[in-house]
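Can anyone check this?
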Amino acid sequence: MVEKVPMTVEGHERLEAELKTLKHVERPAVIKAIEEARAHGDLSENAEYHAAKERQGFIESRIQDLEGKISRCEVIDPRELSGEKILFAATVHLADEEDKIVKYQIVGVDEVDVAAGKISYISPIGRALIGRKLGDEIEVKTPRGETYYEITQIDFI
């Protein structure tokens, strides 16, 4: 059985766009660079050729990776969700021990952007939040030690 990869609509669109760019822009450009480098002669000492071949390997590997993720993804639109429990794609407001409010959206592994408030569902905070309700208090073990939060708001936007 193939394991599904949860992803938001935005994350799915971003991966699709990256795949399209790799296939239709990057791949043809690196093929052209390899052809030009070959035209310079001796390949054993041709740095341009070796750099282009290395870049080609990276592009092909990333294309395979993206195609695999996209084929296994389960796209979840938070606007179609509701309820009292925190689910994947929910946006959660938390009050820390000093009553400072932090806001996180729980997203897929390939969508993480901590600076933008997007955390993975498998991160320590993400795991602690899934299934919890408004008003619940959670304890999260982080590299800096244990942190306590209270869930103050849950949105599906």
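Reply from J.R.: I decoded it. The chain is about 40% helix and 25% strand.
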